[in-house]
Amino acid sequence: MNASLLDGLRGRLPELALKTAAADLEYYGRDWTRRWTPAPLAIALPSSVEEVQGIVRWASEQRVAIVPSGGRTGLSGGAVAANGELVVSLEKMNRVLGFDADDRILAVQAGIALEAAQAAAREHGLIYPVDFAARGSCSIGGTIATNAGGIRVIRYGNTRNWIAGLTLVTASGEVLELNRGLVKNSSGYDLRQLVIGAEGTLGIVVQAQLWLTDAPPESNTMLLALPSFEALMRVFGVLRARLQLSAFEFLTDKALAHVVAHGAQKPFDEDHPFYVVAEFDADTEEKRDAALTAFGELLEAGQVADGVIAQSDAQAAALWRLREGITESVARYVPYKNDVSVRIGAMPDFLAQTQALLAQEYPQFDVVWFGHIGDGNLHINVLKPDAMENADFVRECGRVTALLAEALQRHGGSISAEHGIGLVKKPYLSSTRSAAEVALMRSIRHVFDPAGIMNPHKLLDTGSTHPVYGETA
Ligand code: MLT
Ligand code: ZN
Questions:
Q1: 320 and 355 fall within a common domain
Q2: Residue 470 has what pLDDT?
Q3: What is the CATH number for 382?
Q4: Is 379's C-beta closer than 6 angstroms to any atom of ligand 1?
Q5: What's the predicted TM-score (pTM) here?
Q6: Is the CB of 133 under 6 A from ligand 1?
Q7: Does the pLDDT value for residue 277 go beyond 50?
Q8: Distance between CA 71 and CA 146 in Å, rounded?
Q9: Which of 31, 137, 154, 339 to mutate to test the pocket of ligand 1 (most atoms within 8 A of CB)?
Q10: Are 87 and 42 within 8 A, CB to CB?
């Protein structure tokens, strides 16, 4: 049946690259969660917007579910295809389309890697400021799907601040040009912003217009060792008041131990429970002195136990590796990832409650904390013991996530700060969004995709009566 179904697609789009080899189904059917067994119908690799339209029209007629696919570095299962879906990989659509100097807009195809878009921006003396460790593998389309944040949100905000326009292929195969690079556009609903963070449920983003900005002043990086969790937010308050911060990231001793075991250099002789990587403007003597003074005062006040300010670009890169290398260093433990956020003001209380909760509920697991504490965003990774079955591990983590979600609800936080809801966080969406909000989101989704073919089962269940291919398999 699959073969004849695909013959129909081939007949419709003879030039379309299609992959069906077992290794390809496996490769394109999973993301970094590695929780589901990949089982897509096939992989379509369109080369043009017209091909994407053709695929979507065919899928809509045949009621074949589609999973839009970028670099699959996602951590919530948003790009997983484990249910007979057609993966639509944008990897062949990875070109820069143009640069508009007046508007400082870089137009790209959605399959371009974030790092390639950043490099293209630099060629024009500007930057695309969204940045995070997976920059080399993730795609711009994927960053739009999740409204990706990363390490410089504290200065630049999330992806949604930088998307000047989008080209969307809808579930019916129409092409929408959303916002078209306008700075000001008060002409009704901003569908561009609705699509950003929609995790491929409202259509396939095929092109994007990225706003670029001036390169920041010369910066420097410091690593601080902290004696306690309480010190974290205090140190943040002091550094934010005294320096121009572009990043304020934290990690625990356990996170550091994993990165060091993975090849990074241990920064201090002594061990400390918490560490901060802070990046700050250092283009003048005055700013460099301010950093030294703040550091000295924090040391004297006992808020900081040790520290180092990078003396070279290589040393700054080595300090950043301690933070950016965490995900890779714990990957072999198939971590259960929490990506939660609260307002900065709620952070001290939330941290204390969460620390107590996890100490009580997870005594048996290695729990690695890190994240973008300056944005109120914590990553809590629970590492799977080698001897434990993945299903048992996920069940146990899910039980504790429900408690964490309750704590988030009490603090007005979010169950997903930047990774998206996907499949992983879907059961907890109601901790962050009211029933009325979820009902509206479901209705919006139905308007965009009445047949329920766009990334079904991700983000929220639609309750659509339209059959989805593979659902009963
Ligand atoms: C990070 O901040 O390093 C990313 O969100 C990836 C992760 O959480 O593992
Ligand atoms: Zn992150």
A1: no
A2: 43
A3: 3.30.70.2740
A4: yes
A5: 0.97
A6: yes
A7: yes
A8: 12
A9: 339
A10: yes
Say how many domains are in the chain.
5
pLDDT confidence tier of residue 224, bands split at 50, 70 and 90: very high
What does the pLDDT read at residue 473? 34
Mean local confidence (pLDDT), 443-457: 95
Q: Whose CA is nearest to atom 6 of ligand 1?
A: 327
**For ligand 1, mutation pick of 327, 332, 340, 380 (most atoms within 8 Å of CB):** 327
| Ligand 1 atom 9, closest CA | 327
Closest residue (by CA) to atom 8 of ligand 1?
Answer: 379
Cα of 254 vs centre of ligand 2, distance in Å, is 17
Q: Please give the full DSSP string across 249-269, using - where no structure is assigned.
A: EEEEHHHHHHHHHTTPPP--S
What's the one-letter identity of residue 232?
A: L
Query: What CATH number is associated with residue 317?
Result: 3.30.70.2190
- The domain boundary, picked from 180, 214, 248, lies at 214
Q: Which residues pair with 88 in a beta bridge?
A: 44, 68
Smallest CA separation from ligand 1 atom 7, residue: 327
Among the candidates 214, 237, 252, a domain finishes at 214
Asked whether residue 103 falls in the same domain as residue 207, the answer is: yes
* pLDDT of amino acid 461: 86
Is the CB of 135 within 6 Å of ligand 1? no
Q: What is the CATH number of the domain that holds 159?
A: 3.30.465.10
Q: What is the DSSP string of 441-470?
A: HHHHHHHH-TT--BSTTSSS-----S--TT
Read off the pLDDT of residues 154-211 as tens digits, 9 standing for 90 and up. Answer: 999 999 999 999 999 999 999 999 999 999 999 999 999 999 999 999 999 999 999 9
Return the ligand 1 atom nearest residue 323 CA: 3
200 and 123 within one domain: yes
Domain residues for the domain of 210 are 96-214
Does 243 have pLDDT greater than 60? yes
Paired residues of 225 in beta bridges: 275, 306
